[in-house]
Amino acid sequence: GQIVYSIAEETERGASVGNIAKDLGIDAATLSARKFRMITGSSKQYFNINASTGALSVNEPIDREQLCELKSVCLLNYELVLENPLELYRMEFKVSDINDNSPSFPLSEYHINMPEFLSPGARFTLPNAQDLDEGANSVQNYTLSPDEHFCLEMQIRGDGSKYPELVLKKALDREQQATHRLVLTAKDGGNPPKSGDVPVVVTVLDTNDNAPEFEHSVYRASILENSPSGTLVVQVHATDLDEGPNGEVRYSFSNTTSADLQRMFSVHPRTGEVTVNGVLAVQRPLLEMLVEARDNGAFGMSSTAKLLVEITDVNNHGPEITITSLSSPIPEDAVPGTVIALLSILDKDPGENGKVTCQISENLPFQLKPSLQNYYSLVTSELLDRELISEYNITVTATDLGSPPLTTQKTVWVQISDVNDNPPVFSADAFDVFVEENNPLGAFLYQVSASDPDIGENGRVSYTLRNSTVAGSALTSFLSMNLANGSIHAKRAFDFEQLRSFRFQVEAKDNGSPALSAAVTVNVYISDQNDNAPAILYPTSQNGSVAVEVVPRLADEDYLVTKVVADDEDNAQNAWLSYHLAHSSDSTLFQLSPHTGELRTTRSMRSTDFLKHKVVVVVRDHGDPPLSSTVTVGILLADTLPQALPDFDDSGEPPPLLNATNIYLIVSLACVSFIFAAFIFFLAIIRL
Fold first, then answer.
1. Average pLDDT, the chain
2. Which one of 81, 243, 574, 616 is least enclosed by Cβ atoms within 10 Å?
3. Do 168 and 149 contact (CB within 8 A), yes or no?
4. With 0-12 CB in 10 A as exposed, 13-18 as middle and 19+ as buried, what is 78?
5. pTM attached to this predicted model
6. Over the stretch 220-246, which tens digit does the pLDDT of each residue have?
């Protein structure tokens, strides 16, 4: 919408202009929450809005003449932007003029040279006063101080503008009075009126009585605004009826022509050609200058003509793109049609050169929609997914309709904020964990891993054990879990012989709101260690005594004396048992099967065999390192079971054959035999 206010210039600071909330039908209490902003192209903020009441007041007094220069209508344009929802209102302030400027003349004093022989009725152009006010407050009339020789008359140029002329009423006599001092007063039409004075010094001369006259009082020309320096604008021409130097005319710009225009244009002093002298850096389509023609007489006479130059626009301004409002980042679950940015697109060229088309790339989930005049809204056209694309660089291209067209691009950076729309995902459907029994307390078992493509708290995953029981006990008595990294540790040592495997579930949960979670099954397999030595089941000893087996005295070969039976609680090769004879009182009499543990005789019994024998059997598993157990078996050779078993604590072995005495006898006999043989060998040699 649009609303128009009217305010007089120089209105004091704080003065009320209106109530924007009431005028636009907006709830004043929502202005702050909707982040209202006043946007203007002016360098100053002339107005202020009370965020609580919506009252619009003057923030900075306005100088209409400084703001709008010579424009007949002075307007200030503002845009009021509100968010949530996004709304844009236009405010137009019409600044009315007050009579705060007095008429002034470009020079502090004007000099006019008049020949004494001029007849009454001779006319001289007087300077125009300038008043920055407009309308009735501008210059309305001129007055001249009373003088018997001069009077003031107003003249009208071809374009309707008025200018004062000094008219000679009475012939001059230089010998009586060489100088006349007059005061020219300019008055405006304000209430009360204001005026400005300038002294006019008339010097009476007795030479050159004709001023140059232009062919036209007003010259008109049209040039392109990008015309290069030296381009001919127009050629003015004035004639002087005098002869000789008094009739030679030189051209220049009048002192009333602004210095800026005199820098942009130059006039050839002899030919009267007006050319471009620099860059035409003006915003006004019509420029007004006064060209003066002065003769070369000793006391040169002059006249002026108005030069109106129309600047024809060329397409030399590209579109200007301004981001008025930008909402970034936007959530990835934003619905299509969500407004992201408000763009203002202007082209300073008038007409077709200032009309602009605007577009963005078609392969983006966004589109531009025209809003108010010169405004476009950037909105979403599809659903967004931050996990696929987290940000967009949207290039807005604006092209005017000039020939050739000018194009401007501006990049809008839009970030996509995360929404918790993805649950954690484990790296596998299930995890198998293998752990050896007898593990130390706190031993690391495994680390589960789950990923969440969301970011921040939405992607931060924590791990917990789901409640369950293992072998009748709570899972938490067996395991502990690191919430942050998913590592699993043992809280007790596992025993393969009691628990060989179990399973549980780990839950991964993100920190979003609401939180999303996923679960995975972890299978734990406990592997065996060789931690159990073989247990001898048979034969058994009581109170540390030796187990006794009775064998017939005349038992045959391969007689089964006994069978050693053992068991190992370990598994696999740790429970594979082998049997070995560690000691036997008679190694030639007994043998042991390494696989079955059967102890048998290797030959038939003899009457000369000892009645008591003792063997030590070692039962060894195949673990690494292997563990073993031993059993001592006492063997009694008897045909009947005696009432009392003999004591097998002694060795039960026969005396050794090679005792110390026997060794000495054997050595002595060997020495005697060697000496005897050597002697016989010696005798044989001698005889031969």
1. 86
2. 243
3. yes
4. buried
5. 0.47
6. 999 888 888 899 999 999 998 877 788
